[in-house]
Design a protein that fits this description.
The complex is a heterodimer. Chain A is of the alpha/beta class. Chain A has eleven helices and twelve strands. Chain B has a single domain, classed as 3-Layer(aba) Sandwich (Rossmann fold). By secondary structure, chain B is α/β, with parallel strands linked by helices. In chain B, helix 5 packs across helix 6, helix 5 runs parallel beside helix 7 and helix 6 packs across helix 7. Chain B contains twelve helices and twelve strands. The chains are: A alpha/beta, B alpha/beta. At the A-B interface, helix 8, helix 9, helix 10 and helix 11 of A face helix 8, helix 9 and helix 12 of B.
Chain lengths: 338, 301
Amino acid sequence: MPELLEVKHLSVSFFTHTGEVQAVRDVSFSLKAGEVLALVGESGCGKSVLCKSIMKLLPQTAKIKSGSILVNGADITHYRERDMHKLRGRLFSMVFQDPMTSLNPAMSIGEQIGEAVRVHRPRLSREALRARVLELMALVGIDRPEERMGLYPHHFSGGMRQRAVLAIALAGDPAILFADEPTTALDVTIQAQILDLLRDVQHKLGTATVFVTHDLGVVARVADRVAVMYAGKIVEIGTAEEIFYDPRHPYTWGLLRALPALSKGRDTLYAIPGMPPTLVNPPRGDAFACRNEYALAIDYQEEPPMFQVTDTHYAATWLLDPRAPEVTPPSGGGIHAG
Amino acid sequence: MPDEILLDVQRLTHRYPLTRTMSVKALDNLSFQIIRGEIYGLVGESGSGKSTAARCVMNLYRPQTGKILYKGIDTCYPKAFRANRRMLQASRQLVFQDSASSLNPRMKVCDIIAEPMRLQRITPPRGTLRAEAEFQLKYVGMDPGYLDKYPPELSGGQRQRVAIARALAMEPELLVADEPIASLDVSIQAQIVNLFKHLQAEHGFSFLFIAHDLAMVEFLCDRVGVMYRGRLVEEAPAAQLFARPLHPYTQALLSAIPIPDPRRERARRPLEFHGEELPPESVWIEASPRHFVLKDGRDER
């Protein structure tokens, strides 16, 4: 299957008065059509910046330092704003975390979805536009769309707002959808509905999705593949099964062990010690070394390369080096398949 | 010795006025009790009235009807409140959800932590207010180097720790935490929950923990109350509630927690709860010892 999106050795930095913040450091991954890739990591690890840099939605202070972004084989790394404008919404589209701030409070939901449709198809007649808006609202599971298209965002609950945002994102039939923590602001019950909706829509339209989240439970529900990010780098990437049942990176072990569901009956929850490093001056060697109880001497010296585990599973840890000592993952560090 | 009831909430009803004639009933005859030294969890979806309950308990809102007895004092009765104001304000503390907006961005960490002591005119047991702030900061696991920082310079987890340190500086007997971990990362959440557990074991304060993350509630709390539309639909010891939920709403809520296991998670279908309105003639029955559930009164006949 051809790669829809390919990111090669991408590095993105913010130039602020405190210095250069290396938000994304040498990230490579690819996305096939119709696939769901989850980006997991703590806040500040560069998940959102990675998505926004692909869509070129970053502020002026950010710069792509190196690397390339290929979409359908075409290099869009150096596209100007005018060219990007044509791609946004049609090729890729984004759903943000907080639906209240991404909707206009002074416009009705129907108008807002209609606006998104008109941007892509300006010549649409009024009836056709209305039909398309109703179709989109039905697609994202808003019941009785005729009644509801005249309502304003404040009439909607959080889950309904997120559905409306999704309808806007899907207005241009994008090939890739970036969902940046779309369910973080929602309740568990609503979250489950929205996740099912996303999967459903993704099956119907075949949209490839990059799903940014910090909740591994959510990942288990929606993702085909998972990329774990730490301090601006992808430290482990593989299929969902590989990441959950056979994780190789100590950081992934830590994330899985920190889940309360896996600490049942224990006295304390496992917490990864320490804090993520600042990205102004990333530490030498492996950025995770100082929080890593399995760190080897070389972790403080040199950054580990990506070691291949299987055809689809890669991890950046020196533990996979043939010279490394044998380490058994901690209990709870991987979920036993069964 | 029977368990001493520290907080007794009785048939609390709170309405938010919309217009002159319309109002939203946020709390509807809510009753629960917190025993001294226990961690009580209140869960439910947003809009179920959890935060309103917390704010009523802390006297931030005045409920229309009902009583809140704290150590036997009716805190909603102005005269009783005024007579015991100092004790009430010092021994009950609140931690808010969003630490970015609940800490004054223009105050240094040491001033924030020492502020309640200053306001209550308590002589700091460790000499100076600053020494006291330093002690509390160390207590929640932060370096004293942060004393002279301002809240915007801290990360979310650090700010939440400062908010907790501020609440604990008064050595409260009742700590109310309104979704204290919702805005934090998973790994930081684990740190904060461990901190709560550790502090509670050491201080022995009673703890009203409000959350919508059920997995954390199961881990932390002794007893859990499930709220739906301003009413308590089920209440039980945590282990029992999670093992054997009785009310359909609790069952739906529990089934919505994603399991971090791709094969099991994908095969699973969350239950849905369509009981839009709880029937008014519902009755509160004890299904098994200490396990209470709201049953439709009509079923009983």
